[in-house]
Amino acid sequence: MQKTEALSPTEPADGGDAQATTPLLRVRGIQKHFASSQGLFRRSHRVVRAVDGVDLDIEAGKTLGLVGESGCGKTTLGRMLVRLDSPTSGGIILDGHNYGAATSHELKQYRQLVQMVFQDPMASLDPRMTIGQSISEPLTVMRICTKKEAHKRVHSLMQSVGLPEEMANRYPHQLSGGQRQRVGIARALALEPKVIVLDEPTSALDVSVRAQVINLLRDLQRDTGISFVFISHDLSTVRYISHEVAVMYLGTIVERGPVDQIFESPRHPYTRALLAAIPIPDPRKEKERQRYVLTGELPSPANPPSGCAFRTRCPIVTDFCAESAPQLERTEDGGYVACHFASLAKSESGSLPVFTDVRLKESIQQ
Amino acid sequence: MLATKFRSRNGPPNASSLNHGNMAHLMQSEKNTLLSVRDLSVEFHTARGVVKAVNSVSLDIKAGERLAIVGESGSGKSIMSMSLLQLVQYPGRITSGSAMLEGTDLLALKGKKLRAVRGSKVTMIFQDPMTSLNPVLRVSEQLIAPMRRHLHLGQREAKERGLKLLAQVGIPDAEGNFNNYPHELSGGMRQRVLIAMAMACSPRLLIADEPTTALDVTIQAQIIELLAKVSKEEGSSVLFVTHDMGLVARFADRVAVMYGGRIIESGPTDQMFENPHHPYTRGLLESIPSITGERPERLSQIEGTPPDLAFLPKGCSFADRCPLSDEVCIETQPASLTVASDHTAACHHSDVVASLGERRLFDAEN
User: Fold this and answer.
1) Are A206 and B287 inside 8 Å of each other by CB?
2) In the beta sheet, which residues pair with residue A329?
């Protein structure tokens, strides 16, 4: 099932990329296809392309924000990054080794370096294990230290995420949501990984507790130089915590680049629509804002549109978009965008380019 | 959804509100209060003790007004809104209070009279559109039921109006979707169906409990626009329960902030955002990262967690998290005082909060 093209570890990041530093973790052409069986006796097989050829670079000590709507494949991508799911094809290169099709022995090594924090801390902690046991489990499983040493490590880990030591003997249900998420983070930190993939780490938390967890993540990064992949649909948090942002739509990345470029001069119409859809907590700004409501919904990844995946909802769609799928191309301000008409969207930050398209007019008038 | 449960065919005459005099009535009573809640308390008698989910809440909604109830999980906002239709179930109990809607006390209604109000004069839409639609009934049956029941429409008339409603809430191919089952629709479409059902009998008050929380941002934007549109067209007031301050800014005319089962501050949206008088409101606004402007080194964070409603403190329930709290706060519960026109706050130090200006109340230090 797993066919992975050989990717030599020394291969440069991108053909003509003149990057000063090699990224810590490189993802190249990663794909995940799920077979879905349908029909009588489940005979007709359809392939759902959950992730369809994604390239990413994660720099040491930096945060990559991964945003998109549900069903866009961001969680599947995150799970592949920690190799909870194995990619159908493509490479995950960490420290010069390709772990895209790693054996279980190699995976053990890999998982020490890349850890994950899940959305719902109640579901991801064993209700019958104390907090201390949960945090020390990775240490004992990986045989990194003896139980006694692990015990000591637990205390320093708990301290680093701001949990009082005496909580080590409590059970998950005795903790609040924010505290549970701190436990999840402490457990991910236990093996001193280089990268932590955080899948919607604050979505299950209350507003007033969210800022606590975000601040904690920033502090940890500053102190330990760890890298994060921050998967979220909460764009304001992504903007706050990320250095780079990648926007996913239907299994592919439609735009990526430095955080300020994505938020201040987004090129892809989908990125613009996402930003316009976020309500700003300021009634005055809200009233002045241009209403740009995206029509339609995310198409099924089992039956994606031809050409550009976004064309069914795009306000600036042309006939050409149905024929050819745009590739991620480098823009002059350091980002990548996959849109045939990205250059038209240049330098009009916050507002959409004016097209004579009827659908765009309609959506603005709303 | 509610109306589908009610089998009785003999509704009282006042249930009919599909008349064209509606608008005229609205004009006449534009400044009038539609719903007036006084001293509403809801308690849950559990093994842990008495959980005071709602503590003598009073609020007014004017005709045609959109009021947002903001709060975290466990603040009592959902229970409060559900109790208006007496939907709180055992072990929950409404222990005191009244909710006057056009001369009738919603909390004193029983039996037939209560059923006549539910789904006609006052309707409700919930967070998860899948659980609030009956999975074994077609959309058509569920949509028609309230109209047959409350408006005494015949099957054909109800179907006609149902189709019109589906088109009105932006369901493409209303004819084709009319006979679908809920699972055949997407989340956004289901929420549109619920809105159509809720608007079917031109309610005076629509209660929307986190109607967009389960939806993606681009769909959320669509649903919010739709809610604003239909409520305006029908002249209905909306009680909008949410935890998202951005949505409040976009949608609401007035805001009431709940904390620990009480309304701690309420006022017109613009004033509440510009000049909050309660430290909790202030903290909520400070802790949200912005999608524009500068990114601070750290986010303001409110320390601690929301209070346990079973063990509410004697004094102010926010005192243990508040940077301004002193002995007075711990000893005595602040009364809700008018701080500006139509703006009330329950804080001993509201003048200090109001005079902060640009300065932050919740510092970003650890």
Assistant:
1) no
2) A337
Q: Tell if the CB–CB gap between A69 and B217 is shorter than 8 Å.
A: yes
**Is residue B247 less than 8 Å (CB to CB) from chain A?**
yes
Q: Which residue has the higher pLDDT, A122 or B207?
A: B207
Contact A285 B249 (CB under 8 A): yes
> Averaged over A148-160, what is the pLDDT?
89
Distance from CA of B359 to the nearest CA of A (A): 17
| Interface touch B289/A239, C-beta < 8 Å | yes
Q: Which residues of A touch B273 (CB under 8 A)?
A: 281-284
Percent over 70 (pLDDT), chain A:
85
Provide the shortest C-alpha distance from residue A45 to chain B (in Å).
20
Planar angle of CA A10, A75, A317, nearest 5 degrees: 90
Which CATH number applies to B61-85+110-121+208-366?
Answer: 3.40.50.300
pLDDT for A238 beyond 90: yes
Distance of CA A323 to CAs A305, A308, A336, B6, Å?
Answer: 10, 8, 21, 53
| ipTM of this complex prediction, to 2 decimal places | 0.78
- Residue A206, pLDDT score: 81
**pLDDT given at position A39:** 64
pLDDT tens digit string along A185-226? 999 999 999 999 999 998 888 887 888 899 999 999 999 999
Residue B281 in contact with residue B275, Cβ under 8 Å?
Answer: no
| Whether pLDDT at A360 is above 90 | no
The boundaries of every CATH 3.40.50.300 domain in chain B are 61-85+110-121+208-366
Residue B164 dihedral angles phi and psi, to the nearest 5°: -60, -45
Cα-flanking dihedrals φ and ψ of residue A100, to 5°? -60, -40
Chain-centroid distance of CA A319 in Å reads 31
Helix (H) or strand (E) holding A249: strand A244-249
Q: Out of A162, A282, A295, whose CB is closest to B249?
A: A282
> Whole-angstrom Cα distance, residue A26 to residue A86?
16
Query: Which DSSP state fits B321?
Result: G
